[in-house]
Amino acid sequence: MQIAKDKVVSIHYTLKNDAGSMIDSSESAEPLIYLHGAQNIIPGLERALEGKVADDALEVSIEAVDAYGEYNKELTQVVPGNMFEGVDTLETGMEFQAETEQGVQVIRIVSVDGDDITIDGNHPLAGERLHFDVNVAEVRDATEDELSHGHVHGDDCCH
C-alpha cells in the first residue's frame, strides 16, 4: 500500500541539522505514527513520503520554509516579568502557552535580565534546514474515527 492522503503511516527517522548533529530519532523507540494529509508532520517531509511503501528508505533535506518556517524576528520581544503571574522563578528555556490573535501559541524564554524577560514565539527549529533519514515501517488505511478527528488513535487516545 502506498503512502497517500488518509493513510496511517509509521516511520522510523533520524533528524539532523546542517552541522550533522542529531536533533531527534525514533530508532531506539516506537515509530512515529501519523495520518498522512492531515498536517500532522512538516509539509516537506509529508511530500517526500508521498507514494512510498513499507520498507522504503529515504534521505531528504527539507528547507526551513517547508519545515517550521523561516525565523521571524517579530515573534521575539521583551516583556515584564509580571506577565508570568504565579510563576516563582523564570529561567531561560522555560515554555508557556500564550493566547494570541492566531490562537494559542507556545512561547519560550530566551533570556532573563532582572524584570526584563525576552520571549520567542518561533519554533525552536524555525529557520533551519532539516535532514531526515527515514524508514517506512507500515502503511494502513485510517479508521473512520481517525479520519473524523484528523489524527491517529493509539492505545493512549482519549476519544
Features:
single chain, 159 residues, mainly beta, Chitinase A, domain 3, Thrombin, subunit H, 9 strands, 8% helix, elongated
Write the layout of secondary structure elements.
Elements (H helix, E strand, L loop, with lengths): L6 E10 L5 E4 L6 E4 L7 H7 L7 E6 L13 E5 L14 E6 L2 E11 L2 E5 L9 E12 L2 H6 L10
Antiparallel strand pairs: 1-2, 1-3, 1-9, 4-9, 5-8, 6-7, 7-8
Describe, in plain words, how this protein is organized in 3D:
- With 159 residues, this protein is mainly beta.
- The protein folds into 2 domains: 7-68 and 125-149, Roll (Chitinase A, domain 3), CATH 3.10.50; 73-120, Thrombin, subunit H (Beta Barrel).
- The protein is built from 2 helices and 9 strands, in the order βββαββββββα.
- It has helices at 43-49, 144-149; strands at residues 7-16, 22-25, 32-35, 57-62, 76-80, 95-100, 103-113, 116-120, 130-141.
- The strands form 2 sheets. Strands 1, 2, 3, 4 and 9 form a 5-stranded antiparallel beta sheet that branches.
- A hairpin with a 5-residue loop joins β1 (7-16) and β2 (22-25).
- The longest helix is centred in the N-terminal third of the chain and has 7 residues, at 43-49.
- The radius of gyration is 19 Å and the shape is elongated.
- It starts with 6 loop residues before the first strand and ends in a 10-residue tail after the last helix.
- The model has no long low-confidence stretch (mean pLDDT 93).
